[in-house]
Specification:
Number of strands of chain A: 8
CATH topology of chain A: Cytochrome-c3 Hydrogenase, chain B
Number of domains of chain A: 1
Number of helices of chain A: 19
Structural class of chain C: alpha/beta
Strand content of chain A: 5-15%
Largest sheet of chain A: 3 strands, antiparallel
Oligomer: heterotrimer
Radius of gyration of chain A: 23 Å
Distance between the termini of chain A: 51 Å
Helix content of chain C: 10-25%
Chains: A mainly alpha (417), B alpha/beta (527), C alpha/beta (164)
Number of helices of chain C: 3
Radius of gyration of chain C: 18 Å
Largest interface: A-C, 45 and 36 residues
Structural class of chain A: mainly alpha
Shape of chain C: elongated
Largest sheet of chain C: 5 strands, mixed
Strand content of chain C: 25-35%
Strand order of the largest sheet of chain C: 1-2-5-4-3
Strand order of the largest sheet of chain A: 1-2-3
CATH architecture of chain A: Orthogonal Bundle
CATH class of chain A: Mainly Alpha
CATH superfamily of chain A: Cytochrome-c3 Hydrogenase, chain B
Order of helices and strands of chain C: HEEHEEEEHE
Chain lengths: 417, 527, 164
């Protein structure tokens, strides 16, 4: 009988090749079902992985989702168009502005007012969207680093995220669940000192991200755990519909902001980081660099931000100002009909897509001509991204599962809706 | 929406014209507005109503006709050969906006407290056709806000847009000219005619036709918002006319009844008494079966009822009688008649009902029961009257009675040895009964009434039966089973099928498709 | 925008296979006869002109009141040509089944499971068609229009002292 300690010394944790050592396969083992249950510190967003393991190696996995299913679509079918915004906040709840914006764009296209959104509102949407993207990536990297025992990185990045959320709280009233965007623009203008505060926060965020970079990118332990693990190929990305940092880490250079610019993204000068190997480290590096690029966009947007209204001036779409509502019957009626009946969207269908924190966030909306949607589907990017784990995880170690899953950045609210 | 015009006796040539670029053909005599409605061109209006005359006062329906110098009111102008009508040109849209601006100029900002909000035509047309910001900065003309004009109606003169629909309802439908316009210009207001009150028996129709919340029903005022109501089609149980209605209910309570168009029965109208019959559905209901006056479970009460009836039948079926009510639906009547013949083996079936009342030659029948015709057709020629029942009880010919429905004025029933009641309300006979089984009422069941014209009209269930009440035919089936028969009715539709098979005059009646209640919200403003 | 896709479809397939095409709000769409669903999808993926090789989304729409009742909707994208298309196929209520496209795009696996879970449409050839968002003992297909928004499911356990 082999000496177990002998075998243990020759199996190095972290390198994918080592998992194929013949010795590892010769060990007399039985497969054991292991439940990484929905309630698990590493399963953020509540997902259940029923693993079949032989020793440390995963033989098969059944990724079970649905624990955070809150019936977004069913609720959306029974709510007016504007009432859906709080539901969209709670989809990808670490980048809620991006969901708000994606949904608003879809409905505006159906209403044929997408070209009439005031320019300032478009800039503001880009600004808050990019802030949300930064918070999404900060959360992902922080949580993943913490799971690899890099607690300091977690605290540094969480602190940075908190500065951003504080700023958005000043703007919209809530840290996470902003409901800031409306059909036709945004609900209120930026606060007076928004831009100076944002500049200061970006300066400090840059420092935090630089610190995290220094602590992780050339860290031997971190690299051992991330390099070469969870490799996804470009063909995988196409076949599985992987977009966002996960898709781009494979070398698939697809970013909705560059390829199909919307809002005012075509006016900004920014790069889209693309990986080469498609492993966990590439996903980490892509996200890190994307944050820096988002900050570039933010600086430019603040420079170019024009003056003007922030909500379209159409009483059939946007609520009139309260002063008008209380003092004129016309605005009272408009307010009344918009709230009670909802915006009347002409019958039609649209699939509108934007770049969410995790990839192509699509809204497939079917309208039957009333104030409520007939169908309001979210195409969740991390639903597709998470599905590829069924292919990735077998032949990895349990310990590899943690960074792989972390780098997919599955957000329960978006995946399960 | 337009009333189907009956073809006049002398054939008239059709008129060929163009509406919005579309060539079409209409019978001569149609107005342009109705023609537009038929082809789907939307034209807003306030004062026009398909059931009333068209005075063209509101000017909201103006359309352009090629070759005419000014826009014409489409509700008044008849179609003519080679006419070219445009309903959506910039000029027409502008004119529409201008008219709405005039109408809204002095309109009070009452939406939050106005009952019509949510089903208001002014809101609807402003939102669909105008949507521009107000231009008047100054004050609005003030008028009286809460004027008690009649038995059922409250008037708010500021909200009135002076369309005169209510005046025409009183003049043309009720034939009692209670309302008039007084003064002129921006001081014009709606008021009652000198010395009159708005108390004709059709006054609540003015609340229906009022496009805004100027006329409101005292009964419904401030009780429920329109968009929370769910509408179910049904038939009024007030009298034998059988006006088609919609039951508006929310949270399992009926809030109001409104008429539904039926050109052959009631057109667009119904009487006030009929509207208020909904109160009876929630009032003093028998909610649970009782045995000897104490609440009991359904199976226990049914067993006891079957035992008592079986006992009476076995002793002597000739002393066993059944009372049916002309307020019951056809399905219940049929099931109980069948019970009488097959299981109770008695031919003593009496028909009772509400006593006769006032009538007019507009809509109201003297017969205050909705289904006398149906009861007589189903009961057959051997059906006896309430007077016969009175006589038979006094003469001790009948000593056991199965009382179904809710008949009024039956006389004392204490001398009976056996009394089983299947009733909806806790009336005195129910208290005296040895077993009382709760009966679901007209608004709670799927069924049918046959009106005085012989039309079989469908009722749809709008609310759940009160307490543990069940439809009458279902109780009859269970009693039959307890008495030894093996009936297989599972739903009202099957009973209806048998009714039509048995009664020749109802053989062509149709059960129709299922109708789900429609929420008034998103169903477009009524009016 | 992506008219070339519709043109290629018209060239390759006959009227009975592609029932209708259109373009609305910048989206090109094609309605496919359900029997040819897989064939059309495969053609669009492999044809060099359309090259719709990226799987984006698969879902279902319940058009209650219309026959056939359900529409299975597939969105495809081409990263090389930067165009996309929506394919729809009408699936009847009595026998809601259509071919699976998992063999063409492995990512369709979970999306088809979701369409089955929430609408009850079965995908022939799917390796593992079971519920994904709902728990396995759930009764009914919740996103159907006649499924009530509120109700109780068999597995909900009433805690002692609860009101209803």
């Amino acid at each position: 009988m082999d000496d177990p300690s002998q075998t243990a010394r020759r199996v190095v944790i972290g390198f994918g090749d080592a998992a194929n050592l013949p010795e590892a396969d010769d060990l007399p083992t039985e497969s054991m079902p292991l439940n990484m249950g929905p309630s698990h510190p590493a399963m953020h967003g509540t997902v259940r992985m029923v693993l079949e393991v032989e020793g440390e190696k995963i033989r098969s996995v059944d990724v079970q989702i649905g624990y955070l299913h809150r019936c977004f679509e069913k609720e959306a079918e029974n709510a007016t168009w504007t009432q859906i915004f709080p539901y969209t906040d709670r989809l990808n709840y670490v980048s809620p502005m991006l969901n708000n914006v994606g949904y608003a764009l879809a409905v505006e296209k159906l209403l044929d007012i997408d070209k009439k959104i005031p320019e300032r509102a478009q800039f503001i949407r880009v600004i808050v969207g990019e802030i949300s993207r930064i918070t999404d990536h900060l959360t992902c990297l922080a949580a993943s680093a913490m799971e690899l025992a890099a607690f300091t990185v977690f605290f540094y990045l969480m602190k940075a995220r908190e500065w951003l959320w504080e700023l958005l709280e000043e703007l919209s009233g809530a840290r996470l669940t902003h409901s800031y965007v409306r059909i036709g623009g945004v609900v209120a203008d930026l606060t007076d000192d928004f831009c100076p505060k944002l500049r200061d926060i970006l300066r400090r965020c840059r420092a935090s991200i630089a610190d995290a970079d220094k602590m992780l990118t050339s860290n031997r332990i971190f690299r051992d755990r991330m390099d070469g693990i969870g490799i996804i190929t470009r063909d995988d990305a196409l076949g599985w519909g992987l977009t966002g940092p996960v898709g781009r880490s494979t070398g698939l250079a697809y970013d909705v902001r560059k390829d199909h610019p919307y809002l005012v993204y075509d006016r900004f000068d920014f790069d889209v980081p693309v990986g080469s190997k498609g492993d966990n480290f590439d996903r980490y590096a892509v996200r890190l660099e994307e944050m820096r690029q988002s900050m570039r966009i933010l600086e430019q947007a603040m420079e170019l931000l024009p003056a003007g209204p922030v909500l379209i001036d159409d009483a059939r779409v946007a609520l009139p100002p309260k002063r008008e509502v209380y003092n004129t019957i016309e605005s009272m009626i408009a307010h009344f009909k918009l709230i009670m009946d909802g915006i009347v969207v002409p019958p039609g269908e649209i699939y509108s897509f934007t770049e969410g924190g995790n990839g192509e966030l699509g809204f497939y909306i079917v309208s039957n001509g009333t104030g409520q949607p007939w169908k309001c589907r979210v195409r969740p990017p991390c639903f597709a991204n998470l599905a590829v784990l069924n292919k990735l995880l077998p032949r990895l170690f349990i310990a590899d599962l943690v960074p792989t899953f972390g780098m997919i950045n599955m957000i329960g609210g978006e995946c399960d809706r | 929406m337009a009333d189907e015009r009956q073809a006049p006796s002398a054939p008239r040539a059709n008129v060929k014209m163009v509406i919005d670029g579309q060539a079409c053909e209409f019978p001569a005599g149609l107005t342009i507005l109705e023609a537009c409605q038929r082809v789907g061109s939307k034209v807003p209006f306030f004062c026009w109503h398909p059931g009333l005359s068209a005075p063209a006062v509101c000017r909201q329906c103006l359309v352009e006709i090629k070759g005419f110098p000014k826009p014409v009111p489409s509700c008044y102008t008849p179609v003519a050969d080679r006419m070219e009508v445009v309903t959506g040109s910039p000029k027409v849209l502008d004119v529409r906006r201008q008219m709405l601006e005039f109408t809204l100029l002095n309109h009070p900002i009452d939406c939050p407290i106005c009952d019509k909000a949510g089903e208001c035509m002014l809101q609807k047309h402003y939102f669909d056709w105008d949507a521009r910001v107000a231009r008047n900065d100054g004050g609005k003309v003030r008028k009286a806000k809460v004027v008690d004009v009649g038995r059922h109606i409250v008037l708010d003169q500021e909200r009135c847009i002076l369309c005169s629909r209510c005046i025409r309802v009183c003049n043309e439908v009720a034939r009692q000219p209670d309302l008039v316009m007084a003064f002129r210009g921006d001081r014009q207001l709606l008021t009652t005619a000198p010395g009159q009150r708005l108390d004709n028996p059709y006054s609540l129709n003015t609340v229906d036709v009022c496009p805004v919340g100027a006329l409101t029903a005292k009964d419904f005022r401030f009780s429920m918002r329109a968009w929370e109501l769910w509408a179910t089609p049904s038939v009024c149980p007030g009298c034998a006319t059988g006006c088609n209605i919609e039951i508006h209910a929310s949270r399992n309570l009926i809030r109001r009844l409104v008429p539904r168009l039926n050109s052959a029965v009631n057109k667009y109208w119904m009487c006030d008494d009929g509207r208020l019959t909904y109160k009876h559905v929630a009032d003093n209901r028998l909610a649970a079966p009782t045995v000897a006056g104490a609440p009991a479970r359904w199976d226990a009460a049914l067993a006891e009822a079957a035992r008592l009836l079986g006992q009476a039948r076995d002793k002597s079926p000739a002393t066993l009688g059944m009372v049916l009510s002309a307020q019951m639906i056809n399905e219940d009547l049929f099931a109980f008649s069948r019970l009488a013949t097959e299981c109770l083996r008695t031919d003593r079936v009496y028909l009772a009902g509400s006593p006769e009342g006032w009538c007019d030659n507009i809509l109201v029948s003297a017969d205050k029961n909705p289904n006398t015709t149906g009861a007589k057709l189903i009961g057959g020629p051997t059906l006896r009257t309430a007077a016969d029942l009175q006589r038979d009880i006094e003469g001790r010919v009948v000593t056991a009675l199965l009382l179904v429905g809710e008949p009024d004025a039956l006389g004392p029933l204490e001398s009976l040895q056996t009394l089983v009641a299947v009733s909806s309300h806790q009336n005195p006979p129910v208290a005296a009964a040895q077993v009382a089984l709760p009966l679901a009422m007209w608004a709670e069941v799927d069924g049918s009434f046959t009106n005085r014209q012989g039309k079989v009209q469908r009722l749809y269930s709008a609310i759940a039966p009160a307490g543990q009440a069940r439809p009458g035919w279902e109780t009859a089936v269970r009693l039959a089973r307890a008495l030894g028969a093996a009936w297989t009715y599972g739903e009202a539709k099957q009973v209806f099928g048998d009714v039509c098979a048995k009664v020749t005059l109802m053989s062509r009646a149709d059960w129709g498709k299922p109708e789900m209640p429609v929420q008034l919200r998103f169903a477009n403003s009524r009016g | 925008m992506a008219k070339i896709i519709l043109d290629r479809l018209a060239q390759q397939f006959v009227a009975g296979e592609i029932l209708e095409t259109g373009s609305q709000h910048g989206n090109e769409w094609a309605r496919v006869a359900p029997a040819h669903w897989r064939a059309v999808a495969q053609f669009l993926r492999d044809d060099p002109v359309t090259a719709l090789n990226m799987f984006i989304d698969l879902t279902c729409v319940d058009r209650l009141g219309r026959t056939p009742r359900f529409d299975v909707v597939l969105h495809l994208y081409s990263v090389d040509n930067k165009h996309r298309v929506r394919l729809l196929a009408g699936v009847p209520e009595e026998d809601p089944s259509i071919d699976s496209v998992v063999s063409l795009w492995p990512g369709a696996n979970w999306f088809e499971r979701e369409a089955f879970d929430l609408y009850g449409v079965r995908f022939a050839g799917h390796p593992d068609l079971r519920r994904i968002l709902m728990y396995p003992e759930f009764v009914g297909h919740p996103l159907r229009k006649d499924f009530p928004k509120e109700g109780r499911q068999p597995l909900l356990r009433r805690l002692p002292g609860s009101v209803d």
